[in-house]
Write a structure and sequence with these properties.
6-stranded parallel beta sheet; 369 residues; 21% strand; 16 strands; Rossmann fold; 8-stranded mixed beta sheet; alpha/beta
Length: 369
Amino acid sequence: MKIVHVTKYFSGAGGIESYTRFVSKAAVAEGHEVAVVCSTGNKKYSERYEDKIKIVGLPENASLMNAPITQSMIGVLKKLGPDVIHLHMPNPWAEMNIFLYKMLNPGTRLVATYHSDVVSYSPLMKLFSIARFAYLIPSMNVLCDKIIATSENYVRGSLLLTLARRKVKVIPLGVDIKKFAPSNNKNRIFTFLFVGRLIPYKGLEKLIRACNILKLSGKKFVLKIVGSGKLYSSLRKEVSSLGLNAHVKFCTSVSDKELPKMYRGCDVFVLPSVYKSEAFGLAQLEAMSSGKPVVSTKIRGSGVSFVNRDGVTGIVVRPGDEIALANAMMNLMDNNKLRADMGLNARNRAVKLFDQEKISRRIMEIYGR
């Protein structure tokens, strides 16, 4: 079977990129022919192979709703001749290309993973969202053979998924439970960890202010922020202005090989996201698989609090509340037994519900139907 993934980008440490890679590798392992069509992030066309996956990079001309606008995908898809197209949403330009291709090639099976809604931060974004709804509602219901949602929480909280409910199958994101595994590390100084892009919906300003509360309370700790993004400079300035340089460390270039060590080397993982754009929080799942308790937020309509169970695998607080965030962090700092119990529960939950091998088999079943 020929399977083609259509996504924004393939390289990088984002949740969608990680998901696309693990599903692609799983299909290759089962003997399928797999290609990925995405943007190169620059003006050049490229083709290469990675782990037997053909990656077709299209020149990026502009962006719309934080997604790339590339050259037309129709010709590339015709050459690839897929039996199954796996579309990763949101990705407006790709959506229009793929729905047109499906109309011209009705025999091609179209599976879409609906990673998140587009959250409108401005009047212009709201206008684009309304226009996008106009084509998505009929297209998802008529042209998609199956739509994968990553949690029941997100289905209930998303108007588009609710309107396309008969096509929706809930399959959560998965984690490599062998790669992200616990260890018996002991830190000289208590270590918090964040992993993700440095972008507005991650709520990192609130996390830094929570760290200031910990510092003023006399706590000795370090927060490691792993990732890069457009807020890097402003976040560093905030850290300096609050006198937190000794407490907050930025790690902008952590390799895929080094990442599991970062999780094993922390005491508590923190995901302070404030908007529904954080649909699942794959990084918190990687931390849970590593046996670490998680402090996260209860975002209405998001699956974040489905992954991290409040009082079981970690502590869930109201989004945007740095005082509640700081209190949760201090609670776990001060209670060794609670931290150990939640870390064990976190690992068990990851193994039971989110094992990447089990998740990939469920996706392969959808391809074959």
